[in-house]
Specification:
The chain is α+β, with helices and mostly antiparallel strands. About 35% of the residues lie in helices and about 20% in strands. Strand 11 and strand 12 form a beta hairpin. It is globular. The relative contact order is 0.11.
Length: about 375
């Protein structure tokens, strides 16, 4: 009976397949963002780029995106090009894991003479990037914050190219609160607006929609877990368009500035201040233990509602504390956080007097306690 019902449903005049229409609209929207001059740089640079879909769905879409933007066809890792739910060539199909996922990509890059690797995760909403250092022949895998800094800068160049002479006071760039503060540093120099949200693109996407409704320009949004939204055509992370934009940035830098991505990132640090982050996680399979850990932080040395005032035996003093589980923020005049709070998840941020920001939070999907730390130096300190 169930099988018969399914066959009848497929014959219904109410049923339609939107794929062709959405495919066409997606690439039209993506291409509309590119300034024509930048498409010429793509043609001139003729970059060789290795690409892996990580046994996912990204390859045909990245292939089409590169074709439309005058980029050379990617050199696809054949073993990982097509969808395979068994992920036979990788232990864990997440390009966030770094070089361990890119072994075959690096092997292919050696074979074809490529200095740049792009990788999507299996559902192609995230993007990873690795670049060969020509001096050492070693590969640098960029973390999400480094890529976010580069793509955030690049989004401003797009806007300036398409709107000569326009100021940036109506433009917005967004990032999750556990991501780097580098784009905040850029905003104070360049004049665009920087907004932090809670972790996840449901927050950045919704906030972008609110700003757009108010007549604001959304240039870029990202989270440190290699998720990027370049323009608001798709109000979510999108690894396909991000791949085309990153490759275009690499082409521009090659043609106009004779710089690699790593060299450009160092230039940005010299201008806006060096931002160095260390992020990782610890597994904990006992939810009660996780709660006890965070409650101990909130009731430091047995005192109710008292947080630590220093770390490492007093070497570094804590300036401010924000607890998004309880809604407390010591830096706010009323002691209340401007970001939404939730008692169902754990998240505490410490801002040290030396400018370091450290956040501890629980994962919403895995048995992990995640930590994020970043030191932000001023340009004169780099």
């Amino acid at each position: 009976m169930s099988s018969s019902w399914n066959l009848d449903a497929l014959k219904s005049p109410l049923l339609s397949d939107p794929f062709d229409d959405m495919y066409k609209q997606y690439f039209e929207e993506m291409l509309a963002v590119f300034p024509p001059k930048f498409l010429e740089f793509n043609k001139e640079a003729q970059l060789k780029i290795v690409y892996t879909a990580m046994h996912g769905v990204g390859y045909p879409f990245v292939e089409r995106g590169f074709e439309l933007t005058n980029l050379n066809p990617v050199h696809a890792v054949i073993e990982q090009r097509d969808p395979d739910p068994e992920f036979p060539t990788v232990k864990f199909p997440n390009p966030e894991e770094g070089k361990s996922c890119l072994v075959l990509s690096m092997k292919l890059a050696d074979a074809v003479g490529s200095d740049l690797i792009l990788a999507n995760d299996p559902d192609a909403d995230r993007l990873a990037c690795a670049e060969r250092d020509p001096k050492t022949n070693q590969w640098k895998v960029f973390n999400g914050n480094e890529m976010g800094s580069l793509l955030g800068w690049w989004s401003v160049q797009y806007f300036k190219e398409k709107n000569p002479g326009a100021d940036l006071s109506n433009c917005f760039i967004l990032a999750s609160t556990v991501s780097s503060k580098m784009l905040g540093s850029m905003s104070r120099v360049d004049g665009f607006n920087f907004v932090e949200t809670l972790t996840g693109f449901k927050w950045m996407g919704n906030r972008s929609a609110e700003l757009m409704k108010a007549g604001k320009e959304i240039l870029f949004a990202y989270e440190e877990a290699i998720g990027f939204m370049f323009s608001p055509a798709v109000l979510d992370k999108d690894g396909v368009s991000a791949a085309a934009h990153l490759a275009t940035m690499a082409s521009y830098l090659r043609v106009k500035e004779n710089l690699s991505l790593s060299e450009k990132l160092n230039d940005l640090y010299k201008t806006y201040g060096y931002h160095y982050s260390i992020n990782s996680y610890l597994f904990c399979y006992e939810p009660e233990k996780i709660v006890r850990i965070f409650e101990k932080i909130r009731n430091w040395e047995g005192k109710a509602n008292a947080y630590p005032t220093f770390i490492l035996g007093g070497k570094y003093n804590i300036k401010n504390i924000r607890d998004l589980t309880t809604g407390y923020d010591s830096s706010a005049p009323d002691g209340k956080s401007t970001l939404p709070s939730s008692k169902s998840s754990q998240m505490i941020t410490f801002t040290l007097e030396n400018g370091t920001v450290i956040t501890l939070r629980t994962s919403g999907t895995e048995p992990k306690i995640k930590y994020y730390s970043e030191y932000c130096a001023k340009p004169e300190e780099t």
